[in-house]
């Protein structure tokens, strides 16, 4: 169980300011990347190099600087504990299943947005065409995000809310995880993924659980993206419906096995709830840094869909 005695140093308000800084750094790095690309006219590396830089300089670095002056137990804050093989296999299966469930949610979200008048936007990422570009995509979309985003969201942010109760920690961290991604098209699915990631971390008492599930999910996103470029739209829709139904069934079965297994090994982190979930979500929305995060999210959507 985390050492809650040090949690006063990781407060909700503090991590809200941290996440606001993360958003500003993402915007700054993107602008600098665009200027360098225009000025030096170097070959654009399919957007993957930018994503890699964002993970390092806009996610990992600010989190490290935020924690550096604080007297915390790194092992307990990040829940760096052993994960047994059975959990690894179950989490890999859950990661595969949840990816197809999230894909279906994203499809429904896009249909709603199109019905509201928003234009469908194509991906800015190019399909990897050789081994080098594939390895870069693997690093930028799968490996590094699974490490950096988990350390930030299921390490720092989750721990900051943990003393307020497990439910508040799971839902608040998932909400912030979805908002910080700055994309309304993936908002619902990212929120769902964030809750599942926080849940498995607390059930196992290990951040490795979140990294494994997150990495497998992202790997399937990359592989699906590459495969779908060579298939017709009708076949993709049929296959996605079949995979969604199968994944939904398998996910709930794996979830039951996962909960039973971790109930037996006694690694679960369970902190009694002290405040309501609605109260903690309200603190996000009505605090100054939380409000600034939400304003950034709205402004980014205006830019995303209107090309301002």
- From the alpha carbons, calculate the radius of gyration and give it in angstroms: 19 Å
Number of helical elements: 11
Shape: globular
Structural class: mainly alpha
Biggest sheet overview: none
Counting DSSP E segments of at least 2 residues, the number of strands comes to 0
Mean of residue pLDDT values: 86
- Beta-sheet strand percentage? under 5%
Q: Note the run of SSEs as H and E.
A: HHHHHHHHHHH
Helix content: over 70%
The rounded distance between the terminal residues' Cα atoms is: 47 Å
**Which regions have little confidence, pLDDT < 50, spanning 5+ residues?**
1-6
Write up what this structure looks like.
This protein has 308 residues and is an all-alpha fold. It contains eleven helices and no strands. It has helices at residues 12-40, 48-67, 74-77, 85-115, 131-162, 166-180, 187-204, 207-228, 233-265, 277-286, 288-306. Mean pLDDT is 86; it is low at 1-6.
């Amino acid at each position: 169980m985390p050492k809650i005695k040090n949690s006063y140093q990781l407060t909700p308000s503090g991590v809200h300011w941290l996440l606001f800084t993360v958003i500003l750094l993402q915007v700054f790095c993107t602008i600098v990347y665009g200027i360098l690309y225009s000025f030096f006219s170097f070959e654009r590396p399919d957007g993957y190099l930018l994503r890699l830089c964002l993970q390092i300089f806009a996610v990992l670095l600010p989190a490290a600087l935020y924690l550096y002056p604080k007297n915390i137990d790194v092992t307990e804050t990040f829940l760096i504990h052993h994960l047994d093989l059975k959990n690894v296999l179950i989490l890999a299966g859950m990661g595969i299943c949840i990816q197809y469930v999230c894909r279906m949610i994203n499809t429904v979200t896009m249909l709603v947005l199109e019905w509201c008048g928003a234009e469908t936007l194509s991906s800015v990422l190019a399909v990897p065409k050789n081994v080098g570009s594939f390895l870069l995509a693997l690093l930028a979309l799968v490996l590094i995000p699974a490490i950096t985003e988990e350390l930030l969201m299921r390490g720092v942010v989750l721990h900051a809310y943990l003393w307020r109760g497990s439910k508040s920690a799971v839902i608040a961290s998932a909400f912030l995880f979805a908002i910080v991604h700055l994309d309304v098209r993936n908002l619902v699915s990212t929120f769902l993924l964030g809750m599942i990631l926080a849940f498995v971390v607390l059930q196992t008492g290990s951040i490795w659980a979140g990294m494994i599930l997150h990495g497998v999910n992202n790997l399937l996103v990359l592989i699906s993206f590459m495969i779908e470029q060579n298939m017709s739209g009708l076949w993709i829709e049929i296959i996605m419906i079949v995979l969604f139904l199968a994944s939904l069934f398998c996910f709930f079965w794996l979830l039951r096995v996962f909960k039973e297994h971790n109930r037996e090994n006694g690694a679960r982190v369970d902190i009694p709830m002290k405040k309501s979930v609605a109260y903690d979500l309200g603190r996000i929305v009505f605090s100054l840094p939380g409000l600034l995060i939400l304003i950034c999210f709205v402004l980014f959507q205006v830019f995303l869909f209107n090309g301002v």
